[in-house]
């Protein structure tokens, strides 16, 4: 079931190569994965606002997602939205477009595809204490 846009606008999905180019041209990367996923590794300079939380009952939508995005971003900001594989980011991009974030696009393939292409990521420092 595809998410519906109220505005009639369509979610634009770009591949990781186009996303990388957009980020170099001034777009901001909005990572909608959970904090746990984000901490294991993420696109450099990414902003993390989870779209879903993992609970004992399963995945639950973050009820404050749009509120958190509005406090960190302006509606004019140019955003590339990504998740782990490209599913949650479609839903998040839909919500953003419906809330008048007109310059939001979805990164197809997500973080998995980004890593597969060997693009720069930030990972936690290895624990050096023995």
List the helices and strands and how they pair.
Layout: E1 13-14, H1 16-24, E2 28-31, H2 35-40, E3 42-43, E4 47-48, E5 52-55, E6 58-61, H3 65-72, E7 79-82, H4 88-98, E8 104-107, H5 110-116, E9 121-122
Parallel strand pairs: 1-8, 2-4, 2-7, 7-8
Antiparallel strand pairs: 3-9, 5-6
Protein name: Protein HIGH ARSENIC CONTENT 1, mitochondrial-like isoform X2
Pfam families: Rhodanese
Organism: Coffea arabica (Arabian coffee)
Secondary structure tally: strands: 9
User: Describe the biggest sheet?
Assistant: 5 strands, parallel
Compute the gyration radius: what is it?
Answer: 15 Å
What is the rounded distance between the termini? 49 Å
The share of residues in helices is: 25-40%
The whole-number mean of residue pLDDT values reads: 92
Organism: Coffea arabica (Arabian coffee)
Domain Rhodanese: 23-123
Pfam families: Rhodanese
Protein name: Protein HIGH ARSENIC CONTENT 1, mitochondrial-like isoform X2
List keywords for this structure.
two-stranded antiparallel ribbon; 130 residues
What does this structure look like?
The chain is an alpha/beta fold. It is built from 5 helices and 9 strands, in the order E-H-E-H-E-E-E-E-H-E-H-E-H-E. The strands form 3 sheets. It has a 5-stranded parallel β-sheet with strand order 1-8-7-2-4. A hairpin with a 2-residue loop joins strand 5 and strand 6. The mean pLDDT is 92.
């Amino acid at each position: 079931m595809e998410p519906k846009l109220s505005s009639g606008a369509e979610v634009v999905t770009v591949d990781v190569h186009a996303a990388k180019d957009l980020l170099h041209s001034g777009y901001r990367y909005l990572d909608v994965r959970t904090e746990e996923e984000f901490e294991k590794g993420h696109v450099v300079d990414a902003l993390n606002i989870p779209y879903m939380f993992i609970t004992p009952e399963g995945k639950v939508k973050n009820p404050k997602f749009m509120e958190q995005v509005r406090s960190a971003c302006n509606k004019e900001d140019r955003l590339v939205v990504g998740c782990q594989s490209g599913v949650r980011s479609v839903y998040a991009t839909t919500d953003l477009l419906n809330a008048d974030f007109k310059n939001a696009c979805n990164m197809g393939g997500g973080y998995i595809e980004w890593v597969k292409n060997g693009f720069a990521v930030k990972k936690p420092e290895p624990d050096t204490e023995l």
